[in-house]
C-alpha cells in the first residue's frame, strides 16, 4: 500500500504533502476511496483497509484544523459494518470540508476530548436488529458522563444506514443527544439499502451517487452553517 506517512492529497489541482507544511485552501475537496484516488498511494484505497484509512483521516484532520483554526470544527463520528454508513460519512465529510474545518473519526477512536474540542457533531452508523451498532453504543457509554453538561446547545445531526427501517437507531441516538442537550439542526437521515436476506445483509454495500447526494447536502449545510455561525 505504500507508506501511510507519505500519503498525499490533492490541493487545488496540485499534489502536495500536508506533512511538509502545505496549507489547504478553502476550495480543497478531499478525494475518498471508492470515488477518486488522489492520494498518491501505490494502490487505490479500499474501504476495508483500516490502517491506511486511519492515516488518511489523520492527515486530513491535521491539515484542515491547522489551516482553519479560526473556524468551528464539525466532528463526524462513524461506524460501519458493510460499507454503507462509511460511504455516507465520507460523502458528508467531503462536502463539509469545502465549507470549514472537519474531523472525521471512527467511533472506536473517539474520546471525550474529541467531543469537547468540536463545535458540532454528525453521527453516522448502521441499524442492526432495530438498534445502533455496538461500536456506536460503546462510544456513547464511554463519553456520555465525561462531557455531560459541557456540550449543551451544540448542534448535531444523524445519518443511519438501514435495511428497511432505521427508526430504532434514530430514536436511541436522538434520546442520548437530548440527554446531552444538543440541538438537532436537521431531520435525521435514514438511507435504506433494502437488504433483506442474510446474504444481502452481510454483503459489501455499494451506494450510488444519487443515494449519497442527501449525505453531501447535509454535510454542505452543516459545514456552512457552522462556519457562518447560524447554529
Describe the structure.
By secondary structure, the chain is α/β, with parallel strands linked by helices. Helices cover 39% and strands 19% of the residues. It contains 7 helices and 9 strands, in the order ββαβαβαββαβαββαα. It has helices at residues 50-67, 84-96, 112-116, 134-147, 167-180, 198-202, 209-228; strands at residues 9-11, 14-16, 73-78, 101-106, 120-128, 131-132, 155-162, 183-184, 189-192. Strands 3, 4, 5, 6, 7, 8 and 9 form a 7-stranded mixed sheet that branches. Strands 1-2 form a two-stranded antiparallel ribbon. The chain is globular.
- Distance N terminus to C terminus? 41 Å
Shape: globular
Give the overall average pLDDT: 79
Helix content: 25-40%
> How would you spell out the order of helices and strands?
EEHEHEHEEHEHEEHH
Write down how many β-strands occur, each being a DSSP E stretch of 2 or more residues.
Answer: 9
Amino acid at each position: 500500500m505504500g507508506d501511510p506517512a507519505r500519503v498525499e492529497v490533492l490541493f487545488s489541482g496540485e499534489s502536495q504533502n500536508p506533512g511538509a507544511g502545505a496549507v489547504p485552501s478553502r476550495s480543497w475537496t478531499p478525494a475518498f476511496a471508492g470515488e477518486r484516488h488522489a492520494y498518491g498511494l501505490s494502490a487505490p484505497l479500499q474501504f476495508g483497509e483500516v490502517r491506511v484509512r486511519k492515516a488518511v483521516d489523520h492527515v486530513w484532520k491535521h491539515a484542515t484544523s491547522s489551516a482553519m483554526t479560526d473556524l468551528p470544527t464539525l466532528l463526524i463520528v462513524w461506524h460501519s459494518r458493510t460499507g454503507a454508513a462509511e460511504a455516507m460519512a465520507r460523502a458528508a465529510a467531503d462536502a463539509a470540508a469545502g465549507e470549514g474545518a472537519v474531523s472525521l473519526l471512527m467511533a472506536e477512536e473517539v474520546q471525550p476530548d474529541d467531543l469537547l474540542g468540536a463545535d458540532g457533531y454528525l453521527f453516522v452508523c448502521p441499524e442492526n436488529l432495530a438498534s445502533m451498532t455496538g461500536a456506536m453504543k460503546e462510544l456513547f457509554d464511554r463519553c456520555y458522563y465525561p462531557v455531560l453538561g459541557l456540550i449543551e446547545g451544540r448542534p448535531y445531526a444523524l445519518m443511519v444506514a438501514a435495511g428497511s427501517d432505521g427508526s430504532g437507531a434514530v430514536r436511541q441516538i436522538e434520546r442520548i443527544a437530548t440527554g446531552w442537550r444538543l440541538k438537532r439542526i436537521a431531520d435525521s437521515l435514514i438511507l435504506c439499502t433494502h437488504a433483506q436476506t442474510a446474504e444481502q445483509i452481510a454483503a459489501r454495500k455499494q451506494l450510488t451517487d444519487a443515494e449519497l447526494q442527501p449525505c453531501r447536502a447535509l454535510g454542505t449545510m452543516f459545514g456552512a452553517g457552522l462556519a457562518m455561525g447560524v447554529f
